[in-house]
Design brief:
The complex is a heterotrimer of chains A (663), B (166) and C (573).
Chain A (H helix, E strand, L loop, with lengths): L24 H7 L7 H15 L7 E5 L2 H5 L2 H15 L4 E5 L11 E4 L5 E4 L4 H12 L8 E4 L37 H6 L4 H9 L2 H11 L11 H10 L6 E6 L8 H8 L1 H15 L3 E7 L3 H17 L3 E4 L4 E10 L8 H8 L23 E5 H5 L1 H7 L1 H6 L8 E8 L5 E6 L4 H8 L9 E6 L5 E4 L9 H6 L8 E6 L4 H15 L5 H17 L10 H22 L3 H4 L3 H20 L13 E3 L9 H5 L5 E2 L7 E2 L9 H5 L5 E3 L1
Parallel strand pairs in A: 1-2, 6-7, 6-10, 7-9, 11-15
Antiparallel strand pairs in A: 1-3, 3-4, 4-5, 8-9, 11-12, 13-14, 13-15, 16-19, 17-18
Helix pairs in contact in A: 4-5, 7-11, 7-15, 8-9, 8-11, 10-11, 10-12, 11-12, 19-20, 19-23, 20-21, 21-23
Chain B lengths: L1 H18 L9 H12 L4 H11 L3 H10 L11 E6 L2 H5 L2 H12 L12 E6 L11 E3 L2 E3 L4 H18 L1
Parallel strand pairs in B: 1-2
Antiparallel strand pairs in B: 1-3, 3-4
Helix pairs in contact in B: 1-2, 2-3, 3-4, 6-7
Chain C lengths: L1 E5 L2 E5 L5 H7 L23 E4 L6 E2 L10 E3 L3 H16 L15 H8 L23 E3 L9 H9 L5 E4 L6 E4 L15 H5 L5 E3 L3 H10 L3 E6 L20 H11 L3 E4 H22 L5 E2 L4 H10 L13 H17 L6 E7 L3 H7 L4 E2 L2 E2 L3 E4 H10 L21 H4 L6 H15 L18 E8 L2 E9 L1 H12 L7 E5 L17 H17 L9 H11 L5 H7 L10
Parallel strand pairs in C: 1-5, 10-11, 10-13, 12-19, 13-16, 18-19
Antiparallel strand pairs in C: 1-2, 3-4, 3-5, 6-9, 7-8, 14-15, 17-18
Classes of the chains: A alpha/beta (663), B alpha+beta (166), C alpha/beta (573).
């Protein structure tokens, strides 16, 4: 099969190329030729598009989810097993590496599609299960334990549930993730076959830049990176600043621990981002754009790089795109591991080759940004929203969601939840629906405690607020924030003081060190929190007094840091502490007054005992105990001398008989 | 003699990187450092000086930038470079215990390399594999849902592989 | 012009003002640690935060632009509490050894803590400790006292174009360091000490020679002599409550004698000597050929700057030693002989407005046969300490004349203390040497006077019209050099002073003075020159006599050995 681009030179009349851009390129690729009649060429193209859409296949096709999480679950071995199976059975099989459809906990995910049949999705298909599964499916048997569901299609359905009725997918509204896990992300042709680049085409040919800004503003699309600033309004600021050169930056420095939406979108559907960037750059008048992406995302970098190259080869990037006079070059810059570079001014400093330290705003980037030029910085999800937004129009877009939050939001659901992964829901969906319906609730019979939303800048959502809507303002009201979309579920075995400590540790390590309140303040807050879970046994001198003083200062310190820090990182650094204090004050009090951690997390506050019935007297714990607190002789049950125990928990970790109990 | 050979080899690797960036300006600093680290395994003082000269940047600036970002290392890593994710999901699912187990087994702190040069340990912010938490990388290969027990097994496996190759 | 409301009072603000600029003009004081005049705000210290109506958080006055009608409250409990907390946070990581600190009673952090009533250790925690860097011959860095305001980094980069130091590391591990955290001595530091001037705490101080000097005097077996530089007598008074620019040369001499120096020399005399040699060198380069433009070499920071950043221009540097080194050489080679003292027994001290002079004396080429030209260098600040230690108050002394074993100075030598002064003094003599006539009384030196960073003038010397340029502050010097090298600018004779404004604003001068004080110091030098009758080096009979009795002629063999030097290419990171 020739690629769509190769088909452009179908006859002498057709000679589209990036050098000779054509206004109708997008349409021509999908349904052409459009400038003249050429039945054979048209037929070839129609067939190609059908093949690319895979509404039907002419031989068994196996799709393997090969996103980062898939590979982490050894999908590469699954893929090899498929190959091996095909060779031993001597069957011709098409193998397609797709990215992640979102259900991470079910990886490796494999879809199988036989000619004339619907595509069926299977979960946890490790390499060892491939042979039996493929044999079964080929024989017409759908293994019930592995099967997730079948895709809707024109073909006769199997006697099996549909994938879109699976509880994980049913409540979702997939606009941004539409293609993720469905198409081959490295194929621009597949993206085009699925309607790609029509939005860019429509924008360049019919919408003046100012109108494009208006349209996005009218749609109510707000920044998905955390702040929630109206995207169209931001564009207009940059649009009206007079300058020879302007820049668009796609912020793909997804640093929030617990967030991987951007990675998944870029891995799974990179052209959606490229198209969105082209639309945004056109609207603000930028001719150069940057993708600032974490170096920790090698696969995403590979995919976005290929997408940019292919888009350029097809003429969707480069000079005089679609003969509109609009030029755009997209450059990839890899971040080098600094959470603070998610902050706009720090990010720009990083692109400029400087230390990623923020600077005061104003001047705002839209006025003076990268290299001193007006710059718009949008997050991946914001930009990836644009193609669909343009396709359906601002009014339609704005019908979904709440009063002030429109469209959908992608969340990375993880932690103590049955089904982890990437979910996209309409704004206004409740947290309860996301965590319990989509995520399947807390596993192992444990009780839900809270969900941390918005990462280290956000807050937690306790049980009493589970019915809150996904909405920028509502979340703020309960002391949380939308953030970029990390949603980590915690159960009764999670200690909230420990969670606050975790985030404070993260923030103080990631603080750029420039402004005093953030650099010094977060460090002191961490020390105060650490002291809460330090045993009296490990304290000397007036440490206990200092511990109390610290607790008294905690809130006041948090407020000053919030009030005076230079950038958003510092201003929101206290949020996890303030939020956990608000809802879980009793846990703090338990740590301070009772010196106990009922979640069993803060090791030093636990009491350790050895179960004489389980202990075989192997002496390992006694050998490893750093304070010589464990007594006993070989092959007789050991015991712990409490006065000597420093509560490090090493004995629990090293015991192979599960004989050491901590409570 | 061997020292010299090593030095020459490293110099030519840096040369090769710099040759890919003729006439580069400051905004190429981080990409160049990334490439140098890729080629050399870490950033040597000599390399940073050379990069500075190439970009007409004072060495203090190169060093200032390099030390700002987590990615850059200033000494060689072990034969097995272990990077443990300490993102939120991993934390909630017990990565702290995994870290303790690694520290106990390797007797090193994050950022260090074992005396025999076999293992080095690093903590990563979040690698975005939260669905597989706790996650760990060994020389770039992902291990999902690691536990104190499983990492001990992984270390054992590494040692075995190393012995076999030796 | 627009009105803004501050604490209920209406004040006027300029359209481009930051809140801080408007407040300062209106006399409303708020604390700052990181703000620097004439440089963009960094926004690091957050001490200048104020409440602005309509803003959710406190805003930094240094970076926030004024908008008409804005309402500001500068000292609300919220703002004051925030500032106090920030100070407490800094103190929580501070060594708390004020009594032992060079900046005790002259420290911004100490003053702020006092002003904000910090009376209890509310915030506790681990103090991060880093090693003291005393490797430099000129400067000492104590990272423990550093508050990371970044002013030293900025002055080193944005004013001096050296960038020997930068922020290193991140978060609480951030510190100021050289490349690879090596000692300052092996860095590209040019020892100018401008960083000391901007440091709000005791994190940056000069390498003190006070103890060496006291020991040398106390030992009794040494003949301890002292020279003081032209720019010292117009600044040291400030440290005794006199007004900026007050020339205290007379009482200074008296004080030095009381401290126990056997002889007190005026470096300005050596400046005259420098003028003779340098003007002759210029005349020779102009007539017989040689690298042009010729560049002055009195400022040791600048010399190192050329050696490490513009090695190709080393031949352009005048081979003349600086006045300090010429004086040192003449003292040990001529004065000692004349006075019948073994040069090894002479302990020669210089008092300099400069920290780089401490580096200069340590250069190996400034020693002959194991005898250093100069043995110890005190900055103006160290001298003030020495005077105070001896219980002397400058205000109470009667002026005395300097020891003049070599005779008087001219006022041309005194001009060395300000940017453009070396040029002016050298032109007066070069003109005479080339033409046999005094520099036309019509030549108005105003073009090369004043505080502008780059100055240029045309001077007719005989049938040649020379283009002379003067730069102070090495960023300005860099600009001139780059323009010269690219062919944009033609210069025949270039004077460069490392510190902006010249030695009157040198790295060893009193701390915490406003620009106005520097202007007054400069004016004082011009007044001395104006009122003096002996205004050129070549007319100085003592100089003529020194050549007759000892040196022979300028650029002669003796001069070559004693008064000229050479330079080395420096490979620094």
């Amino acid at each position: 099969m020739r690629s769509l681009k190769e088909q452009l030179t179908c006859c002498t009349k057709c000679s589209h190329s990036p050098e000779k851009p054509c206004r109708d390129l997008a349409k021509c690729l999908l349904d052409g030729p459009v400038c003249h009649t050429h039945p054979e060429a048209h037929e070839e193209r129609r067939k190609s598009v059908q093949a690319l859409l895979r509404t039907d296949v002419d031989r068994p096709t196996v799709y393997v989810g090969m996103g980062t999480c898939g590979i982490g679950a050894r999908a590469d071995r699954t893929m090899e097993a498929v190959q091996h199976w095909a060779e031993t059975r001597n069957i011709e099989v098409d193998r397609v590496a797709v990215a992640c459809i979102g259900l991470c906990s079910a990886e490796p995910l494999v879809d199988i599609q036989l000619p004339g049949c619907p595509r069926v999705s299977f979960q946890k298909v490790t390499a060892d299960k491939v042979e039996a599964l493929l044999d079964d499916v080929l024989a017409g048997k759908l293994s019930s334990e592995l099967m997730l569901g079948q895709f809707r299609s024109q073909h006769k359905a199997y006697d099996a549930p549909f994938l879109d009725e699976h509880p994980f997918f049913k409540p979702q509204m997939r606009w941004v993730l539409k293609n993720c896990g469905i198409i081959n992300p490295t194929s621009i042709d597949e993206y085009i076959a699925h309607g790609g680049y029509q939005a860019l085409s429509k924008t360049l040919l019919t919408t003046p830049p100012q109108d494009a800004c208006d349209l996005v503003e009218k749609s109510g699309l707000r920044g998905r990176g955390g702040g929630g600033f109206p995207a169209g309004t931001k564009w207009k600021f940059a649009r009206k600043t007079v300058s020879e050169q302007k820049y668009l930056i796609c912020n793909a420095d997804e640093g929030d621990p617990g967030a991987f939406m951007d990675r998944a979108v870029i891995e799974g559907d990179p052209h959606r981002l490229v198209e969105g960037m082209a639309i945004a750059a056109y609207a603000i008048g930028a001719r150069k754009a940057y993708v600032y992406i974490r170096a920790e995302y090698p696969l995403a970098i590979k995919h976005i790089r290929k997408a940019i190259d292919d888009a350029k080869a097809y003429g969707f990037l480069g000079r005089n795109i679609l003969d509109s006079g609009f030029d755009l070059e997209i450059v990839i810059k890899q971040g080098a591991g600094a959470f603070v570079c998610g902050e706009e001014t720090a990010l720009m400093h990083s692109i400029e080759g400087r230390r990623g330290m923020p600077r005061p705003r104003p001047p705002f980037p839209a006025v003076r940004g990268l290299f001193g030029k007006p710059t718009v910085i949008n997050n991946v999800e914001t930009l990836a929203n644009l193609p669909h937004l343009i396709d359906i129009g601002a009014e339609q877009f704005a019908t979904l969601g709440t009063k002030s939050s429109k469209g959908t939001k992608v969340f990375a659901l993880s932690g103590k939840v049955a089904r982890t992964g990437l979910v996209e829901v309409a704004m206004g969906t409740t947290m309860r629906q996301i965590i319990f319906d989509i995520g399947g609730g807390v596993p192992n019979g444990k009780k839900y405690k809270a969900a941390q939303i918005g990462g280290p800048s956000g807050g937690c959502i306790p049980t009493e607020h589970l019915d809150i809507d996904v909405d920028y303002e509502s979340l703020k009201q309960v002391g949380a924030m939308m953030g970029s979309g990390g949603l980590v579920v915690m159960d009764e075995s999670t200690c909230m003081v420990d969670v606050a400590k975790f985030f404070m540790d993260f923030i103080q390590r990631e603080s750029c060190g420039k402004c005093i309140p953030c650099r010094e303040g977060t460090r002191r807050m961490l020390e105060i929190l650490t002291a809460l879970s330090r045993s009296r046994r490990n304290e000397t001198g007036t440490a206990a007094l200092t511990r109390f003083q610290g607790v008294m200062n905690l809130t006041s310190l948090a407020e000053v840091i919030r009030d005076t820090s230079l950038c958003g990182l510092g201003q929101t650094a206290s949020n996890p502490v303030l939020s956990t204090l608000r809802y879980f004050r009793h846990e703090y009090e338990e740590h301070v007054f009772e010196r106990h951690c009922s979640a069993g997390v803060c090791k030093e506050l636990l009491h350790y005992t050895i179960d004489a019935n389980k202990c075989t007297g192997c002496t390992l714990c006694a050998k490893k105990c750093p304070s010589e607190a464990i007594m006993g002789t070989l092959k007789t049950p050991h015991y712990i001398v409490e006065d000597k125990c420093i509560g490090c928990g090493t004995c629990v970790d090293v015991c192979r008989k599960d004989a050491v109990k901590a409570a | 003699m061997m020292q010299n050979d090593l030095q020459t080899a490293s110099t030519s690797r840096i040369d090769a990187v710099l040759a890919r960036h003729p006439g580069a300006a400051r905004d190429s600093l981080i990409p160049i450092l990334q490439e140098v680290q890729e080629a050399q395994g870490y950033l040597s003082e000599d390399a940073m000086k050379r990069v500075g000269q190439h970009l007409k940047l004072p060495a203090s600036k190169v060093y200032g930038v390099a030390t700002f970002y987590n990615q850059f290392r200033f000494s060689a890593v072990g034969q097995f470079h272990i990077a443990l994710c300490r993102g939120t999901a991993c934390h909630v699912k017990g990565s702290a215990k995994v870290l303790d187990a690694l520290k106990l087994a390797l007797k090193i702190e994050p950022g260090q390399t074992t005396k025999d040069g076999m293992f080095s340990l690093e903590i990563l912010a979040c690698i975005g594999a939260c669905g597989l938490a706790p996650a760990m990388l060994v020389n770039g290969e992902t291990y999902a849902n690691v536990t104190p027990d499983s990492v001990r097994a992984i270390l054992h496996d590494c040692r075995k592989r190393s012995a076999k190759n030796a | 012009m627009s009105n803004i409301e501050v604490n209920g009072r209406t004040i006027e603000a300029q359209p481009e003002d930051t809140v801080l600029a408007a407040l300062r003009r209106a006399g409303v004081r708020i604390p700052t640690l990181c703000a620097m005049e004439n440089l963009l705000p960094s926004g690091a210290c957050r001490l200048c935060v104020v409440e602005v109506e309509g803003q959710r958080n406190l805003v930094p006055a240094c970076a926030f632009p004024v908008t008409p009608g804005m309402k500001i409250k500068t000292h609300t409990p919220r703002a004051v509490k925030a500032r106090k907390t920030i100070i407490e946070l800094l103190l929580a990581d501070h060594p708390d050894d004020c009594l032992y600190c060079a900046r005790n009673n002259n420290c911004d952090l100490q003053r702020l803590a006092q002003e904000h009533g910090v009376r209890a250790r509310r915030i506790h925690g681990e103090k991060i400790r880093r090693p003291l860097d005393a490797s430099s011959p000129s400067l000492v860095r104590d990272p423990d006292k550093c508050v990371l305001c970044g002013r030293c980094v900025r002055v080193c980069e944005e004013v001096q174009a050296v960038s020997a130091i930068d922020f290193v590391g991140r978060g609480s591990k951030t510190h100021i360091g050289t490349a690879f955290d090596e000692g300052l001595n092996v860095s590209s530091c040019i020892h100018c000490g401008q960083c000391v001037h901007v440091c709000p705490t005791g994190a940056l101080t000069e390498q003190s020679h006070v103890e060496d000097v006291i020991q040398a005097i106390a030992a009794g077996d040494k003949h301890v002599v002292v020279q003081h530089a032209p720019a010292v007598s117009v600044t040291i008074g400030e440290m005794f409550g006199l007004k900026s620019g007050a020339d205290v040369a007379g009482v200074l001499t008296a004080a030095l004698r009381r401290i126990g120096f056997a002889k007190v020399f005026d470096t300005s005399f050596a400046a005259d000597l420098t003028v003779m040699e340098e003007a002759s060198e210029l005349a020779e380069r102009l007539t017989k050929g040689g690298a042009l433009p010729m560049m002055t070499s009195c400022s040791p920071g600048w010399v190192k700057f050329v050696e490490q950043f513009y090695p190709k221009l080393i031949p352009n540097l005048s081979t003349c030693k600086s006045p300090q080194q010429m004086m040192g050489a003449v003292i040990k080679a001529f004065y000692a002989k004349q006075a019948g003292i073994d040069p090894h027994k002479v302990f020669s001290v210089s008092i300099m407005p400069c920290t780089a002079k401490k580096f200069e004396v340590s250069r190996p080429e400034h020693s002959r046969d194991g005898v250093a030209d100069v043995d110890a260098v005190l900055t103006t600040r160290e001298l003030a300490q020495l005077i105070k230690m001896h219980g002397i108050n400058l205000k109470e002394l009667t002026p005395e004349g300097a020891d003049t074993p070599f005779g008087e100075r001219s006022s041309a030598g005194k001009l060395f203390g300000a940017t453009g002064g070396v040029m002016e003094a050298a032109l007066r003599t070069a003109h005479f040497l080339v033409t046999g006539k005094e520099l036309d009384a019509n030549f108005k030196p105003t073009a090369i006077r004043g505080l502008n960073g780059i100055k240029e003038a045309k001077v007719k010397v005989g049938d040649k019209e020379l283009t002379v340029a003067v730069a102070s502050g090495l960023k300005n010097a860099r600009t001139v050099l780059d323009q010269m090298l690219s062919g944009e600018r033609h210069v025949d004779f270039l004077e460069v002073m490392t510190c902006p404004g010249g030695c009157i604003a040198g790295g060893g001068q009193p701390l915490g003075v406003p620009l106005e004080a520097i202007r007054e110091r400069m004016q004082a030098l011009y007044t001395i020159d104006k009122e003096d009758t002996l205004r050129t080096a070549h007319q100085n009979p003592s100089i003529q006599k020194l050549y007759k009795d000892f040196l022979g002629k300028p650029l002669g063999e003796k001069s070559h050995h004693l008064l000229h030097t050479h330079y080395e290419v420096r490979d620094v990171a």
